[in-house]
Amino acid sequence: MNPSASITRLTLVLGGVRSGKSAFTEVLVKSLDVANPNFPVTYLATGLATDAEMEQRILIHRRRRPSHWVTQEESLDLAAGLRASFNLPARPWAVIIDSIDVWVANMLMEHEEEDKERLESKTLDALDEVLNVTRRLAAVFMVSTEVGLSLVPPEPLGRRFQDLLGLVNQRIAAVAGTVYLVVAGVPLTIKDAPNFD
């Protein structure tokens, strides 16, 4: 499969930190099938509870989700996480991956000793595998932080993260059928949405 080909059922939701991008994505998924509010949804969470503050963030996200949504946790191998959803009792109609920026941070920490080119190659190869797997799903929603509007970090690790996430976001946006930018809780459509009928 060609990862650069358009995936009309893929939606990317971008936004800054605390912009409301995750909450908007959840509302978007809930609104897709009003007649059947219990259609199968898998929430693929990439966050790791590494400290008390992160545990609290994860808890807030969990409390917002409908009880019938299935949560899977996968911090590094997103393609494997998506494939695992195929084996659930109810194969998901929609999958939310929240979030791509945390996944990129996890990849960066896992491969911190790699040089820039090798890290980019590993991450983009892993992303292409994820994009290929998404073609087997009815609808996929990826949530990520937009880093292009922030300052250039003074630390080398911060710059590596910003550069890598920028590349990843561009790759996803290029193939996604729909891209939103959420600013202060207000979603802006920056790429036309497909028809989900």
Summarize the structure.
By secondary structure, the chain is an alpha/beta fold. It has six helices and seven strands; from the N terminus they run βαβαβαβααβαββ.
3D structure, described in words:
The protein is of the alpha/beta class. The chain has one domain: 3-Layer(aba) Sandwich (Rossmann fold), CATH 3.40.50. It is 41% helix and 22% strand. The protein has 6 helices and 7 strands, in the order βαβαβαβααβαββ. Strands 3-2-4-5-1-6-7 form a 7-stranded mixed beta sheet, with helices on both faces. The longest helix is centred in the last third of the chain and has 20 residues, at 156-175.
Question: How is the secondary structure organized here?
Answer:
Blueprint lengths: L6 E9 L5 H10 L10 E5 L6 H13 L5 E4 L4 H8 L8 E5 L1 H11 L5 H19 L4 E7 L10 H20 E8 L2 E6 L6
Parallel strand pairs: 1-5, 1-6, 2-3, 2-4, 4-5
Antiparallel strand pairs: 6-7
